[in-house]
Amino acid sequence: MKLIGEVLQGKRERLGMTLSELEERTHIQRETLMAIERNQFEKLNQPAYAIGFIRKYAQAVNLDGAHLIEKHQEELPETNQFVSKALHQLATTDQSLAYQQRDNETKQVAIVIAGLMVVSAGLWAVLSLVL
After folding, report:
1. What transmembrane ranges does the database entry give (predicted)?
2. Is residue 123 situated within a structural domain?
3. What is the DSSP string of 22-71?
4. CA quadruple 92, 93, 98, 100: dihedral positive or negative?
5. Does a structural domain hold residue 34?
6. Beta carbons of 49 and 84 less than 8 angstroms apart
7. What Å distances lie between residue 76 and 36, 106, 122, CA to CA?
8. Which of 9, 71, 86, 1 is nearest to 40 (CA)?
């Protein structure tokens, strides 16, 4: 079985894409792309980002990054095993994550704004009577 870097590099080369073109497309530094192609994840400035880099690289060369990562899990740095599993669970979950705004914060902001408006109106009234 080919290593993850070999799979990505092979696909890039079959597409006729240079490292410079891939760098421009993914916004990943050339050195990082080369480390990925050599499976040298420990040489990355932040090995914890390896999965994100792999996904981005895979997307740029029309591969399924999640499937690729799943098949090559043992090649990734140990620190990423937990993160990778969590990301995989999030990616395969049918439930959508929704941002929930707290009502208390909205009410507090509204009260502060209303208070400032009342104080401003009072000051305006006092100043208009004095002048």
Report:
1. 109-130
2. no
3. HHHHH---HHHHHHHHTT-GGGSS-GGGHHHHHHHHHHHTT--HHHHHHH
4. negative
5. yes
6. no
7. 10, 43, 65
8. 9
What is the spatial distance between Cα 32 and Cα 43, in angstroms, rounded to a whole number?
A: 8
Tokens representing 90 are 């999030």
pLDDT digits (tens, 9 = 90+) for 75-106: 776 654 566 666 677 777 665 555 555 567 88
Q: DSSP label at 91?
A: H
What's the number of domains the chain is made of? 1
What pTM does this model have?
A: 0.57
HSE on the CB side for 8, CA within 13 Å?
26
1-38 pLDDT, tens per residue? 788 899 999 999 999 999 999 999 999 999 999 999 99
